[in-house]
Amino acid sequence: DVKVTQSSRYLVKRTGEKVFLECVQDMDHENMFWYRQDPGLGLRLIYFSYDVKMKEKGDIPEGYSVSREKKERFSLILESASTNQTSMYLCASSALAGETDTQYFGPGTRLTVL
Amino acid sequence: GQQVMQIPQYQHVQEGEDFTTYCNSSTTLSNIQWYKQRPGGHPVFLIQLVKSGEVKKQKRLTFQFGEAKKNSSLHITATQTTDVGTYFCAGPRGNKLVFGAGTILRVKS
Fold first, then answer.
1. Which of A1, A57, A103, A104 to substitute to test the interface with B, most B CBs within 10 Å?
2. Would you call A104 and B45 a contact, using CB atoms and an 8 Å cutoff?
3. Which is nearest to A85 in space by CA: A1, A8, A11, A33?
């Protein structure tokens, strides 16, 4: 079974803090993704990575950065957290580079920025 | 850019009633995927449709892909309380997926 894990289920941070969300997958998948989920807006892609040290912006990259130093790990960074970044953050991975494949999601991190 | 619209946003049904959610794309899709997210959970892959006019069934769930490959539907026959959750469709854009906003299904027992 594919397993995608995220470092925290719940996180509370203050405005202006630097926030790290970590995601690890154990199936040697090429692609990894970060989404945020907000009511009525579905899943919006923030960033994705198709290889180590490779990244591409998604639909809403502003205010975020990412890091993929190892194949199994994909980190989302909020350089200076703001209240409008309060959301559910979902990490996902998929097997094949350059193709659309089934995505496997982690349990999510619910981030609250005060 | 490519958009995937999903309706309705929310549906509340009596247990035993049928349920349908519809997905429409602004562009032709090579395939469409469906995911289910239980309350408090994360999205889980249900199925992928590839061929024009394709119909696939999983027990009480019937998935259809339109002839023009721009729309799709998920129909649940005789809903049960275990069907509650949010159902998402997703279409490919390059090597990414574009998700619909989801349909939230609530079932009254």
1. A103
2. yes
3. A11
Nearest CA in chain A to B92: A100
Beta bridge mates, A64: A78
Residues of A in contact with B44 (CB under 8 A): 105
Structure tokens given for B55: 């119909």
A25, A51, A94, B18, B48 from A29: Cα distances, Å: 7, 9, 6, 37, 19
Condensed to tens digits (0 to 9), the pLDDT of residues A73-91 reads: 999 999 999 999 999 999 9
User: To probe the interface with A, which of B36, B42, B48, B89 has the most A CB atoms within 10 Å?
Assistant: B42
User: Tens of pLDDT along A7-50?
Assistant: 999 999 999 999 999 999 999 999 999 999 998 888 999 999 99
Fill in the DSSP letter of residue B34: E
Q: Angle at Cα B94 formed by Cα A36 and Cα B3, nearest 5°?
A: 60
